[in-house]
Amino acid sequence: MANNLDNLNDILFQSLRKVMDDKLNKDEIQIEIERTRAVAGTAEKIINAGQLALKAAVVIAAQDASPEQMPELLESIPQRPQKLAPKKPNYKTITAEFDENEYE
C-alpha cells in the first residue's frame, strides 16, 4: 500500500463503513469505534505533517533558500516546487512596461 492521501481517504471511509455496519453487535461496534478514533487521530497527524511540508515548500520557493539554510527536518522537501510557488515577479519591470496613457 502506498502512503498517499488517496489511500488515507480509503482507510478513513473503510473505518466509517465498519462502524456503520448493521451486522455488528454492541461490543463489536465499540471496538470499531475505538479503532476508528485511533485511525482518525493518526490521519490528522499525517494531514498536519503534510500541511507543514507544503507551507515549508512554499516558503523555501519564495525565499530561494539553499538547502544549507533549511533545518534538517525539512531536507526532504523539494527546493522549488514550480506549481506551488513561482519566483516572485519583478515589479520594476512590470511597472516600467505599464503605459498609463493607454488606458485613458
Layout: helices, strands, pairs:
Elements: H1 5-19, H2 26-63, H3 91-97
Question: How many separate helices?
Answer: 3
Q: What count of structural domains?
A: 1
Radius of gyration: 23 Å
Helix content: 55-70%
| Major beta sheet summary | none
- Can you write the helix and strand succession as a string? HHH
Euclidean distance between termini CA atoms: 61 Å
Q: In terms of structural class, how would the helical and strand content be classed? A: mainly alpha
Please report which band the strand proportion falls in: under 5%, 5-15%, 15-25%, 25-35%, 35-45% or over 45%: under 5%
Number of E-type strands: 0
- What would the principal axes of the Cα set say about the shape? rod-shaped
Rounded mean pLDDT is: 76
Low-confidence blocks of residues: none
What does it look like?
The protein has 104 residues and is mostly helical. It has one domain (5-103). Helix content is 58%, strand content 0%. It has helices spanning 5-19, 26-63, 91-97. Helix 1 (5-19) runs antiparallel to helix 2. The mean pLDDT is 76.
List keywords for this structure.
single chain; 104 residues; mainly alpha; 3 helices; rod-shaped
Short description:
With 104 residues, this protein is mainly alpha-helical.
